[in-house]
């Protein structure tokens, strides 16, 4: 059970990191225009 919780937390952290990086790229594009 604990191992599953850690896997889920790692997945959420990875998704959040990817989402944040994508958001930063979009913000840079908007600032350039």
Automatic annotation (TrEMBL):
It comes from the Eukaryota. This is Uncharacterized protein. It comes from Anguilla anguilla.
């Amino acid at each position: 059970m604990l191992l599953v919780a850690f896997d889920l937390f790692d997945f959420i952290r990875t998704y959040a990191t990817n989402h944040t990086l994508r958001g930063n790229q979009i913000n840079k594009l908007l600032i350039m225009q």
